[in-house]
Amino acid sequence: MRTVLLGAPGSGKGTQGELLSQKYGIPQISTGDLLRAAVAAGSELGKQAKAAMDAGKLVSDEIVIGIIRERLTQPDAAKGYILDGFPRNLAQAQALDEMLAALEQPLQAVILLDVDFEVLMKRLTGRRTCQVCGAIYNIYFSPPQEDQRCDKCGSDQLIQRSDDNEETIANRLQVYQSQTAPLVDYYEAQGKLHKVNGTDEVTEVAKHIGQILETAM
Ligand code: AP5
């Protein structure tokens, strides 16, 4: 199964990607997570990416396409994957199509998580992520059962992402509108786009995506 999760910041790509990864036993490949890991490790790539991420802009195509090219050749991606946050503009989408054509493994489905912009700001400012296991919470919609403690691994390291402040979120949403939203037409023209109401409950969204993927495969 080769799937792309498309959607604005806060639309639920990470949340749904994690559920799909568990359900189908294939990796969730998030360029955001890979870039944050590079920043945390202080690598040269991380240093190059940090300024753009802090500003809510896109990291250069050269860097992210390179990351994806390398990641897709890892053994765990052989049976399929869920791409979360890639592609994010036309150049990345075309590069991905070329990569997959060379492997004779085209994308099977692109899921668009559709959420109104007013909801996104609250979702993003309220997001907390477990620094140990990556579990995602929201202080407004889905808080952990015990205050400041991860339900899954018990860690007390629930952090707010540095780009989840109102100013950077506004930039990220604007970048989504101008650079990523045109991919909706791109994938619709390929007959691969499936739109899902991302404002439903997490379990409902997951159910809907599952139904789409069962018929698309
Ligand atoms: P990235 O990490 O990809 O961030 P993003 O696209 O802005 O998306 P988010 O992770 O913020 O949101 P999400 O859709 O995953 O939502 P989530 O499930 O967490 O990218 C970060 C940065 O890296 C970019 O700005 C850029 O600089 C760089 N970058 C990454 N990829 C790049 C690329 N390809 N090219 C260039 N640069 C790149 O949910 C959000 C919140 O909502 C959570 O609190 C969650 O609990 C809650 N929630 C989720 N679903 C629901 C629901 N159904 N109901 C109620 N609450 C919900």
From TrEMBL:
One of its GO terms (cellular component) is cytoplasm. It holds the Pfam family ADK_lid. GO terms for molecular function: AMP kinase activity; ATP binding; zinc ion binding. Its EC number is 2.7.4.3. Residues 30-59 are annotated as: NMP. It is found in: Cytoplasm. The keyword Transit peptide does not apply. ATP binds at residues 10-15, 127, 136-137, 200. Monomer. Consists of three domains, a large central CORE domain and two small peripheral domains, NMPbind and LID, which undergo movements during catalysis. The LID domain closes over the site of phosphoryl transfer upon ATP binding. Assembling and dissambling the active center during each catalytic cycle provides an effective means to prevent ATP hydrolysis. Some bacteria have evolved a zinc-coordinating structure that stabilizes the LID domain. HAMAP family: Adenylate_kinase_Adk. This is Adenylate kinase. It comes from Nitrosococcus halophilus (strain Nc4). The gene is adk.
